[in-house]
Design goal:
Subcellular location: Cytoplasm
Shape: globular
GO cellular component, one term: DNA polymerase III complex
Radius of gyration: 24 Å
Helix content: 10-25%
Distance between the termini: 72 Å
CATH architecture of the largest domain: Roll
Strand order of the largest sheet: 8-5-6-7-20-19-18-12-16
Number of helices: 5
Family: Belongs to the beta sliding clamp family.
Structural class: alpha+beta
Low-confidence stretches: none
Keywords: Cytoplasm, DNA replication, DNA-binding, DNA-directed DNA polymerase, Nucleotidyltransferase, Transferase
GO molecular function, one term: DNA-directed DNA polymerase activity
Length: 294
């Protein structure tokens, strides 16, 4: 292969490769905006893999669109030695808590909203580097700066107030179920084919949980037909419970969070359903159910 030569000529770049030549018009380097910098702020150091997974687990829950700008972001809330990574669109929510240590734990507490899409792109870059991620936050400059090795990403903080999400997380449950994630995911993928009805505008899956140990996932529509799948799981409940969910929310969850085992908690029909896993510490995912017609 022939070598590629690069030459600069005033505001142009010239590329030469063998008998081929190309010229590109360029802007003045002085016109490029200066990189924002935090002169003074709070800094925490984060494990690359742990923080990357926390963003992956939460970013798909963030809202899309401008109707509620605060919900398009991921909340990063530091309280002492804990950093909570949270996102919600009002219908589902993920919270992943990260334990800080050393100077990161001793620093001042903060709460900031970072655009989910931008933070997700930054994490994809950092994941290939492998080094710890530094987060420096300055409230006065409305800026969060993430650095990893020689790479630095500065992100403007979102305005708006993030909802008091702790208020909607149930603390007591009447049903507890334990499932193999792969089995439940396969059942949901199979039945979700029938979960879309363009005429009626629904995409609902029904999940029937029987204390004898049977879980039945079903869906039907006038256009597509109907389907069901049954699987075994450990279920502790005083009675059979029927829950309904938007199929997209369940598929999004299983496409992004893939532990071996899954724990399911519910306080009954009409109450938020909570998912946890013994393989993911300090994590929960919440989905609001669809109201079933009596």
């Amino acid at each position: 292969a022939e070598s590629l030569e690069l030459f600069t000529e005033k505001n142009t770049i010239k590329l030469v490769c063998g008998e081929s030549t190309a010229k590109f018009a360029c802007m003045l380097a002085a016109d490029f905006p200066a990189m924002p910098a935090v002169k003074k702020g709070v800094k925490v150091n984060l494990n690359n893999k742990e923080f990357g997974l926390a963003v992956l687990y939460s970013s798909f829950c963030a809202a899309v669109g401008d109707s509620r700008p605060a919900l398009t972001g991921i909340l990063l809330k530091k309280e002492s030695e804990n950093l909570a990574v949270v996102a919600t669109d009002g219908y589902r929510l993920t919270e992943k808590n990260i334990l800080l240590s050393g100077d990161s734990a001793d620093g001042a507490d903060f709460s900031l909203l970072v655009p989910a899409k931008t933070l997700g792109e930054a994490i994809r870059i950092f994941s290939s580097l492998g080094e710890d991620i530094g987060l420096t936050y300055s409230e006065s400059e409305n800026l969060a700066v993430f650095d990893c090795g020689q790479t630095l990403v500065a992100i403007r903080i979102l305005d708006g107030e993030f909802p008091d999400y702790k208020r909607i997380i149930p603390t007591t449950f009447t049903l507890t179920a334990h499932a193999k994630t792969a089995d439940l995911w396969q059942a949901i993928k199979t039945v979700s084919v029938f979960a879309k009805d363009a005429k009626e505008g629904n995409s609902m899956l029904k999940v029937l949980l029987d204390p004898i140990g049977d879980c039945t996932v079903s869906s039907s529509s006038q256009q597509s037909g109907e389907g069901s799948a049954k699987l075994k799981m450990e279920i502790e409940s005083p009675q059979t419970i029927s829950l309904a969910f938007n199929s997209k929310y369940l598929l999004d969850f299983f496409n992004n969070v893939k532990p071996e085992d899954l724990d399911i908690y519910s306080a009954g029909e009409g109450f938020p359903c909570v998912f946890k896993s013994p393989q993911i510490a300090n994590f929960l995912h919440l989905v609001m159910p669809v109201k079933l017609n009596s």
